[in-house]
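ARCHIVE CARD
SHELF: 3
SLOT: left
DATA:
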Amino acid sequence: MKIIAGLGNPGTKYENTRHNAGFMAVDELADRLSLVFSQEKFSSQFAKGKINGEDVVLLKPQTYMNDSGIALRQCLDYYKASPQDVVILYDDVDLPVGKIRIRQKGSAGGHNGVKSVIHCIFTNEFDRIRIGIGKDPQIPMIGWVLGKFPSEQKQDLQTALDAAAKAAEDIILNGTMHAMNSYNAKKV
């Protein structure tokens, strides 16, 4: 059992904002797997399927970004899964738009959704795929992450979302090290 969670904020107010890059990437993965988020479970939009015979749960926590870990904890407890079965996809202001980075563990790096996950699952040792959203020093951080991508960045964003979805599949199929070697080295 693998749990792949995209972090973001629920509701139309936050659709297509930079902070919802994790939701967008998990939507991309669901499309690739022909899965539909048709249920509410674990305080999340929920879909279940398989990747090469491995059971996979896709989550989009509806607890708002800063409480994302609550939903993930519910799912882990229900399936009696471990943090090593988790892959988190989320936005990262320290990466340019169009880039992704995969890591097996690490700090929250100032990301409140990741802080919540670490707090609720009691470890920072879980796979994560960071999706670049860039930053603008002229715009306050909260305004930046809750802003939408401009049209000139849409293609770079789509490139990153495609790569993030493929990387999540690669983690399940071939392991995290393989995915890191494949995607961290690319100009993606």
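SLOT: right
DATA:
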Amino acid sequence: MTTTPQHMLLLKKYAYLLIIIPPALIFLSEQLWLAFGHHNLFAFSTLIFVYLMVPVMDHIIGKDAVNPDEEKEVPALSGQRYYRWLTLLVLPLQLVALVYGGYLFMTTDFSWIGAIGWLLSVGTCSVTLAINVAHELIHKDTRTEQWSGGLLLATVCYSGFKVEHIRGHHVHVSTPEDASSSRYGQSLYQFLPHAIVHNTANAWKLEAQRLRKAGHSPLSWHNELIWWNVISIAFAAMFTLTWGWMGLVYFLGQSLVAITLLEIINYVEHYGLHRRKLDNGRYERTTIEHSWNSNYLLTNLFLFQLQRHSDHHANPKRRYQVLRHHEESPQLPSGYATMVVLALLPPLWFRVMNPRVEHYYQGEEHQLTNAS
């Protein structure tokens, strides 16, 4: 796509409103089965859109090579409230999509296949809204953004991400100490259980350490994880009281799908990359070379530029609208939706990604041995 940098920045400003599409797909799916029948088939509509249509459109629309000017545009863009309010708008969108998705789950005569398709679809919507946007919000300093990020994570029962991602993942990224950084030769199915269990436990450990340093007991009201988990329990209770045990199955099911997709994306973002250990025993500073980058415009608009992940890790406080593309960063061959599907098929994943990792460490092949 060819346009001037100024026009591209203006286009992107309003194209971030595409964030309404994931929850809209919940409503669209219902309209499709009301119009044409086949509700068990249309339960998969969101998956078809995300994992088939978006990858095709990514490659048709192409990449976004525009970076905002650091001196003239970044300060102004960073301070515009529009971008902040857009992320805060996602909280009510997530709540509406979650509740209406539950209503449809309970009032539609799905087969077991259709029910699974619906949980996968709602979970995909939740990872796009709740976890992706919470990721943006929890990196910011304002109380409103912090609380909104925590509430979004509570809707998918993964509040530990708020603690572990900031104090664990960003500190230890691309080292053996980070469970969210996949190693060269490690399959997704080796990675996933360890990542989910370790990151959940590590969040509680990190919060306990913080509280002890501040002179508080980990089992006190100062522990933010207790509060966020109480909110998750309240959501679970609400769905159970409203729709019985199947309401609980729905809420926990979509949460599990969202959590799993988050960790699959973590697998994609850091596969095989690691920070070199220095002579003093410490690791080199995190740079734009320690995360995979993807610059396909459409998916970046849907995900508030999460795919510009290299710049995010090098500069965690940068707001999504001013994240930059770095051509020298390791580049994924496609957008996240395609890479998630590849990750689910380890032989195909290794065939596509291992040569890229090996090229990155060309001349330092011993690094691959140490990383695996």
